Amino acid sequence: MPSLQKECDKAAHILKGFIEKGRIPVEVIANAKGLAIFSGFRAAMYLAGAGGSGVVVARLADGSWSPPSAFSVTSGGFGVAYGLDVYDCVCVLNIQEAIDAYTTGETTLGAGGTMAAGPIGGRPHINTKEVKPVWTYTKSRGIYGGLTVDGTIIKERSGVNAEAYGLNITAAQILRGETKWPSTTQLPEVLKMGEGKSTDANVLGAVSTEPTPGDLKE
Fold first, then answer.
1. Cβ distance 73 to 41 under 8 Å?
2. Is 154 helix (H, G, I), strand (E, B) or coil?
3. 52 sits in which H/E element
4. Chain centroid to CA 196: how far?
5. Are residues 114 and 42 in contact, defined by beta-carbon separation less than 8 angstroms?
6. How many domains does the chain divide into?
7. What is the pLDDT of residues 117-162, one digit of tens each?
8. Torsion, Cα of 11, 16, 22, 25 (10° steps)
9. pLDDT digit string (tens) for 26-66?
10. Which pTM does this prediction carry?
11. What is the DSSP letter of 23?
12. What is the dihedral of CA 142, 147, 152, 155, to 10 degrees?
């Protein structure tokens, strides 16, 4: 199983790709209460099911981001898929209930509120009436959008979190900022980049330039 460090680097890679392609507006990330970033796969039609992993971060009272909490995703509800379909997903969590869903041990993605495809870049202002509890951004085989991930089961990877932060740590404690960030630098800088803040160019330059999982072809 990937360590939290590897999950954070993967999340930085995925999120940076969405930002650089102009898929997620600065305003969306700047106003988000949380972000869940993960990659997953859909199995062949005779091996119905799916899986994956990622991290979630939450906005703290001072406006900074909480340390990341690791989680896994599984689902058999993606329908028919021929071959191996790998995808990237960023869930923008706009209400506290959506964040709380990641602290319950195991729940269904979307249980914290209605999910909808998020607005894309190029919009100077987003009407607050348009804001949904969860906005999703997906990419599969290099194509953005078109993948529905609601119904996916998310489960805290307590072992990964314990290895990174210490025994008896919970996702709720991590997302409340009751522990320190692990020794990872890429994800914090990409989060700043997504909010339109100044960043360390050297750190951003170290983020992988290889295709993300969602760019892979069958």
1. no
2. strand
3. strand 50-58
4. 18
5. no
6. 1
7. 888 876 556 665 578 899 999 998 888 887 777 778 889 999 999 9
8. 60
9. 999 999 999 999 998 765 544 455 678 999 999 999 999 99
10. 0.90
11. -
12. 30
Q: Tokens for 203?
A: 């750190």
Which of 90, 182, 70 minimizes the C-alpha distance to 136?
90
**What single string gives the DSSP state of each residue in 80-141?**
---S-EEEEEEEEE-SHHHHHGGGSSEEETTTTS-EEEPPPSS-S---GGG--SEEEEEEET
Q: CB within 8 A of 205, min separation 6: which ones?
A: none
Q: 67 and 195 in contact (C-beta within 8 Å)?
A: no
- CA of 129: how far to CAs of 105, 111, 132, in Å? 31, 20, 8
User: What is the number of H-type helices and E-type strands within the chain?
Assistant: 7, 9
Domain that holds residue 120: 4-215
What's at 32, amino acid-wise? A
